């Protein structure tokens, strides 16, 4: 059963901290432990989704523009936000991180990784800067018919926070068809497992970036994960990605 909480569409604007606090983080952590992903229903309201998606054509909000086909990443395009981030995205990045850092630290302990994530996102960004990672990584993705995102991992330097969040800004069945979020997991000496995550407009999915621990008969072992988006069959799809480490 997925760990989800529905925020009503008529909900007044509230702070990122308060809306993030409204989820059952014990259940979300259990979902991440079991499947490598968990859904946060209704993280953004419809008008907030539209507000973010409308930013895409305006270059002043972004530091770079990537056309996926030029790099073999798939088809479609995305833009990385520049600092300062839009208030809503920056607020969610700061509010989500402390909740997810609890899971991330537990994962590292289980995998025998000697790295502890600080409780505050600002402190983690200080570590990124010390490692030469100073460029913001939250991004806005845009797909049209025939576009897709190949399976990949968002690693931008020596430091990589092990969980990230993607928020769907378009409504499936109305704004687009196809374009499902896909997560694959490769366990040692086993075939890959695929997880297709159904989302509605405003829903977010938190998911493992690279590795996560799995309990085996001889203790914990690491599995390798990749994520992507299946082919969009009609319409247009926008997503905002919230990545917690910065890039070189």
UniProtKB/TrEMBL annotation:
Name of the featured protein: Proline hydroxylase
Pfam families named in the record: Oxygenase-NA
Ranges where the Fe2OG dioxygenase domain occurs: 134-247
UniProt similarity note: Belongs to the iron/ascorbate-dependent oxidoreductase family.
GO MF entry, a single one: oxidoreductase activity
Keywords from the named record: Iron, Metal-binding, Oxidoreductase
Origin: domain of life: Bacteria
